[in-house]
Amino acid sequence: MLTLSEKECIALINRGECFQAEVEDGAFIVKIDDYSPMVCTAIHNGHRLRDDLKKSFLLSDEERFYEEDPYTDELISSFPIVLIGNDSRFEYDLNRAKTLSTYYKTAWDKQVWEKPLSTKQRAFSHAKHESFYNVLEAIIARLEMLFKNSIVFDMHSYNHQRIAKDTPTFNIGSGQIDVERWGSICHYFERELDKISLPNLDVRAATDEVFQGRGYLIAHINAHFDNTLVLPVEVKKSLWMRRVGRFILWYSKS
């Protein structure tokens, strides 16, 4: 795998070249096997925390994994264009606006830092956040130029144990989707997800039942592009997530 800067990645994308690279000291991975009108992201996959932050970090690995989305990289590995976050969302959250992406002291009612991050520490993390979105913008701009329309599967996993009711295997968040324009595609995607058969599990898909898709990734793309649909998808955390990934790849080609 190559190690490239943000500018080097964008130059390759602008030339239409395929590549696989770690960007910004490994903060995220970009894989482009083919320029197809679909992108898949796993922005909360990462667990990395840089050394200068570990000294004041208070959460255990178990507490981190409760909010991080491990193995979502495997879920999307077969896609032709993939972006994977390697850094923990506790360092900076790619599904929040840049200035809000670093938690001051607490997150999800738990104290994260023994003392608040310094201005320098926050700026370092914010630069990686900005780099990710610059590369994502370059990819989508290229796809809209080639195909006019494109689609982004914004993949997450969620801990259903915190919810005291039956929850769907797949949840599509439509809160920021132009349903008048894209609603038929969203409904079709939900119906197809609902048809999945998995061993020892009752599969059910729903829209806006547990999450409404109000994250920053879809907001950012909506603000910059007119012809790209983002589908925020939450999957129950489970060991069979890779099978789900193979289905989504089949669906995106059908």
Q: Please, how many helices?
A: 8
- Whole-Å distance between the termini? 30 Å
Strand runs, count: 11
By secondary-structure content and strand pairing, the structural class works out as alpha/beta
Rg (C-alpha, Å): 18 Å
Shape category: globular
Low-confidence stretches: none
Helix content: 25-40%
Largest sheet, in brief, is: 9 strands, mixed
% residues in beta strands: 15-25%
Order of helices and strands: EHEEEHHHEEEHEEHEHEH
Arrangement of strands in the largest sheet = 1-2-3-5-4-8-11-9-10
Write a structural description.
It contains eight helices and eleven strands. The protein is an alpha/beta fold. The strands form two sheets. It has a nine-stranded mixed β-sheet with strand order 1-2-3-5-4-8-11-9-10, with helices on both faces. A two-stranded antiparallel ribbon has the order 6-7. Helix 1 (6-14) runs parallel beside helix 5 (119-147). The protein is globular.
Describe this structure in a few short sentences.
The protein is an alpha/beta fold.
Please describe the structure with a list of short key phrases separated by commas or semicolons.
254 residues, two-stranded antiparallel ribbon, 11 strands, globular, 8 helices, alpha/beta
